[in-house]
Amino acid sequence: MTSTPARPMDRLARVPHPSVDVSAHFDLDNGLVDRTVFSDPSLYQQELRRVFAPSWLFLAHESQFKRPGDFFTTYMGEDPVIVALGRDRRIRAFLNACRHRGMRICRADAGATKAFTCSYHGWSYDTSGKLVNVPNQGDYPDHFEQDRWGLVEVAQLDTYKGLIFATWNPEAPPLAEALGGMTWYMDAMLDRDPEGTEVVGGVHKWALEGNWKLAAEQFASDWYHVNISHASALMVMSPNGKGPKDEIVQTPGRQYSDPLGHGHGFPTHPKSRFDDRVVHDWYDYDALRERLGDTRVEGPMTTGHATVFPNFSYLPVNGSIRVWHPKGPNRMEVWAWTLVDRSMPDEVKDAQRLYNLRTFGPTGIFEQDDGENWSECQATAHGFMSGSMTLNYQMGLDLQAEDGVHPGTTGRLYSDGAARGFYTRWRDLMNTPAWHEKPGKDTTS
Ligand code: FES
Ligand SMILES: [Fe+2]
């Protein structure tokens, strides 16, 4: 799929916002983070402008769009967007806001349509975003240019092995470049099957009282909490009900830290697996070794956790892919899909879907533990003293290097390395004026 060019439009002025230099909130060489970055409202607004608006963000999976007119509504940061397959079979994404008074154009979660018609005054847009009907058009002046009032389209849209990403930033590097070295790790989930992947069973959505970074950071870097936070779940899942063996509790593994802020931790012990029996039995591990190589089958393909900066995360073992949508500094919405290989028989796909729900669905035995942690971390940040405390991210400091097996920089599995990488990227974006802050560069309407 090719990138979508920006639709040039002149726009009126934006209100200038003073930006804060966030350097003093971090001492990442020494593993220190000031908690204010999780709760301050003005930093949150800056984050929408400088982290979300310029970055490539995950939208949906290609398999959600089968026929022209199929659409899905989601968010990029807090911007509501419609993702739609046009009659030319091209996937586009637009702001889900009418050009007349800004009404939400599409109020459905997903579906199929020939046109998006605003329920306020009836302006109507086709699935390529073009304004195709304006009621009472005779009452507009002669110089009303209907062509100029189409939906506001993203600057670039592209896919990586079924995953659709977009950005508002016309200057963003191509998606493949933005994913960088992370693609080698992502392929351990996305490239097992020559037929590719698809999503099954719809999208689960739930709200949590926590800053989105708590979740994104944890999925990039945190195996550390597993033994403690998920102790009861591990006990339930152990064959004799007495709890997991040492090779699971003190498991060997690695954690990848990408210079672009992505991160991925994965155990490498063959017994440290939690996959569903039906799914496990279906896989042809010799063929997978042939396709992905031994290293990926024995590491990143198993029970790992990963974040693609900023807010897309996944779990290779159960096909959970999810977005942490920011909803203010103190709240996030989790939107989660189940990803499966296309050539799996239906019963195997279903086994994976149910396994994902049991473990990491909104009431999953692991997910509930994680959500409780993030909510309670946020709840203790509201006070002046507690909200500006320094937090410790020192685990694994000075222990990251090339290991000669896994590409890029890795460290021990039990490490804050990828979290430090995540906040290094976040800090740098927060301190860099985005394209829309440069004179004459802001072409999105
Ligand atoms: S706000 Fe959409 S037609 Fe008026
Ligand atoms: Fe967890």
Shape: globular
Number of domains: 2
Share in β-strands? 15-25%
Uncertain segments are: 1-8
How many alpha or pi helices? 14
Task: Supply the helix-strand structural class.
Answer: alpha+beta
Looking at the overall shape, the CATH architecture of the largest domain is Alpha-Beta Complex
How many strand units?
A: 21
Radius of gyration, CA atoms, in whole angstroms: 22 Å
Look at the structure and give the mean pLDDT.
93
CATH domain topology of the largest domain: Naphthalene 1,2-dioxygenase Alpha Subunit, Chain A, domain 1
Main attributes of the structure:
single chain; about 450 residues; alpha+beta; Rieske Iron-sulfur Protein; Naphthalene 1,2-dioxygenase Alpha Subunit, Chain A, domain 1; 2 domains; four-stranded antiparallel β-sheet; 14 helices; about 25% strand; globular; disordered N terminus; binds FE2/S2 (inorganic) cluster; binds fe (ii) ion; aromatic hydrocarbons catabolism; NAD
